[in-house]
């Protein structure tokens, strides 16, 4: 078989040489040009979703008849598992399964079972929660460890308008309850906060989940992709969210769970649990970002706000060896310099970027 020539994005760099790969393997981690170690790999298993959230997959873009990826273009479970195993050898400790809505991927528990067999991985999933009553038990049995659910308001009318498919709050809460019933704990529930849309419900959201054992998290509205009509005026700073909640129930800062954790953690002073805030816009955390994302069709992105990814599917299907695949993975990460949120301007926010539904959040 002829030697595989890696396909790469010039921005990300070429495959690493043998010495760089050997160093990454010896240290059990690979670092980029800002010394950020690769820790998390987020893998999108479908670009389809049963919601049309206005900040992610607005109906005017993702209308009936929109052409999603055909099945043969999607990474197979075996290809995903192979990439996860390679990533584990150079320091990835957490795999997050995303979409689209990942529970739309047929036989997903089988993939979870395959990934759970990789020693040393924390295995998590992000979902809109509507399909959890049907799938929670199988996911738990397969080895999934944690779940994050998206829910943008406790007000039914607001939530129905935001998901734009008429799905009510009760349906998502039923999914959270189903996950709890089969043994998932510390479920994170994410609210993307938009000024004039759902920001009036921040405290009500916090109230609902305080003391429940679940963790409410508040995410600044971000300029992901080019279809959500993002404006800086629509961003509610996380500092304002913390102030609102603290006025109702005082909060104290909590330590991060690990280096590079996205959310800043806060605990209720009275012991009622914790919340988190994700502040990519107003408090950029590029300097500690340790996440890579793999799209449904096998392109690796080193930044949520990237335009292009590196095609690993082509190598997988051309018969590349593990050594060749690993060399490209190390090369892509070790030449990474991404810092979009640190340099964001009104003009850069308008530049074309990959859609969140394609690579996951």
Give a verbal description of the structure.
Mean pLDDT is 90; it is low at 1-13. Strands 7-8-9-6-5-4-3-2-1-10-11-12 form a twelve-stranded mixed β-sheet. The chain has helices spanning 18-27, 77-89, 108-116, 132-142, 156-163, 169-181, 202-209, 238-248, 313-318, 322-334, 340-343, 356-359; strands at residues 40-44, 94-98, 122-127, 146-150, 188-193, 215-220, 251-253, 264-268, 274-278, 291-294, 299-301, 310-311. The protein contains twelve helices and twelve strands. β5, α7 and β6 form a beta-alpha-beta unit. The protein starts with 17 loop residues before the first helix and ends with a helix. The protein is globular and about 55 Å long. By secondary structure, the chain is of the alpha/beta class. 30% of the residues lie in helices and 15% in strands. α3 packs parallel to α4 and α4 (132-142) runs parallel beside α6 (169-181).
Descriptive tags:
12 helices, 361 residues, 30% helix, single chain, twelve-stranded mixed sheet, alpha/beta, globular
Described by strand count, sense and barrel closure, the largest sheet is:
12 strands, mixed
**Helix/strand order, N-terminal first:** HEHEHEHEHHEHEHEEEEEEHHHH
In round numbers, the mean pLDDT is 90
Question: How much is the radius of gyration in Å?
Answer: 20 Å
Uncertain stretches: 1-13
Give a count of the beta strands, DSSP E runs of length 2 or more.
Answer: 12
Q: What percent of the residues sit in helical stretches (DSSP H or I)?
A: 25-40%
Spatial gap, N to C terminus: 38 Å
Bulk shape: globular
Placed side by side, the strands forming the largest sheet appear as 7-8-9-6-5-4-3-2-1-10-11-12
Structural class: alpha/beta
- Number of helices, counting only DSSP H or I runs of 4 residues or more: 12
Strand portion: 15-25%
């Amino acid at each position: 078989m002829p030697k595989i020539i890696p396909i790469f994005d010039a921005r990300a760099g070429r495959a690493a040489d043998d010495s760089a790969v050997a160093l990454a393997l010896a240290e059990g981690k690979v670092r980029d040009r800002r010394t950020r170690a690769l820790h998390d790999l987020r893998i999108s298993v479908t670009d389809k979703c049963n919601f049309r959230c206005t900040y992610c997959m607005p109906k005017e873009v993702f209308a009936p008849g929109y052409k999603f990826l055909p099945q043969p273009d999607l990474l197979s479970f075996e290809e995903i598992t192979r990439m996860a195993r390679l990533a584990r050898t150079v320091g990835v400790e957490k795999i997050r399964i995303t979409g689209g809505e990942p529970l739309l991927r047929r036989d997903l528990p089988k993939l979870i079972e395959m990934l759970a067999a990789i020693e040393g991985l924390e295995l998590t999933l992000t979902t809109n929660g509507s399909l959890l009553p049907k799938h929670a038990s199988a996911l738990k049995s397969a080895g999934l460890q944690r779940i994050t659910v998206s829910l943008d308001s406790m007000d039914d009318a607001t939530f129905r308008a935001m998901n734009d498919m008429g799905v009510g709050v009760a349906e998502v809460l039923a999914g959270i309850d189903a996950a709890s019933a089969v043994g998932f704990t510390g479920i994170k529930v994410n609210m993307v906060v938009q000024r004039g849309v759902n920001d009036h419900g921040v405290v009500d959201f916090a109230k609902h989940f305080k003391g429940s054992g679940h963790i409410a998290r508040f995410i600044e509205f971000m300029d992901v992709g080019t279809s959500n009509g993002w404006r800086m005026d629509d961003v509610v700073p996380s500092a304002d969210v913390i102030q609102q909640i603290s006025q109702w129930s005082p909060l104290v800062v909590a330590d991060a769970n690990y280096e590079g954790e996205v959310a800043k953690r806060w605990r209720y002073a009275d012991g009622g649990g914790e919340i988190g805030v994700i502040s990519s816009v107003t408090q950029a955390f590029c300097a500690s970002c340790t996440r890579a994302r793999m799209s449904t069709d096998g392109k690796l992105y080193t930044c949520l706000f990237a335009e292009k990814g590196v095609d690993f599917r082509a190598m997988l299907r051309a018969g590349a060896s593990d050594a060749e695949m690993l060399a490209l993975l190390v090369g892509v990460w070790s030449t990474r310099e991404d810092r979009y949120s640190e340099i964001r301007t009104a003009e850069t926010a308008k530049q074309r970027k990959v859609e969140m539904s394609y690579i996951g959040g």
